[in-house]
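Students often ask what a holo structure prediction actually looks like on paper. The answer is less mysterious than it sounds. You provide the chain, you provide the ligand, and the output is a string of discrete structure tokens encoding the 3D arrangement of the protein together with heme C.
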Amino acid sequence: MSARSIALILLIALQYLSPAPAASDQASDERALREFYDLEEGKRLYGQYCGFCHGEGGKGKAYNLVSPPPPDLTAPAVQRKSDADLAKVIHEGEQGTAMGAWKWTLSEKEKQNVLLYLRQLAR
Ligand code: HEC
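The corresponding structure tokens follow.
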């Protein structure tokens, strides 16, 4: 038997021997991948729209430009708030402050992804 056909037989045998990935493994891999891309998108959107005032790490920037100044988004006082509360601020803004409404700029999904990124910043 040639080395080539032995290799071929081994290859076929290996396919039978290696167990197929369990369905639940595959589902959790897909979820991890989805979360990874959502987070990446949140980070990109944050850099594009929010970083100017809130700073690269969410710690606040533009202090001397707007009053009241942007809060530290990683602080417990902010992170304690529910997803619904923070999403509402992002959606509607805070009247009388530099925090504008993003409802015309960001889709529901994009707001959720930015929020996901804000949670990640505080970890
Ligand atoms: C022009 C400056 C500016 C930009 C741009 C901006 N913010 Fe803000 N943001 C502020 C200020 C100022 C406040 C504080 C408002 C207040 O004191 O009530 C704030 C408040 C917030 C809060 C509320 C924190 C709390 O304690 O409730 C969140 C959440 C937030 N911003 C997220 C974002 C996100 C996400 C973006 C980008 C999509 C963004 N901001 C863009 C200035 C800005």
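The two ends are 60 Å apart (CA to CA).
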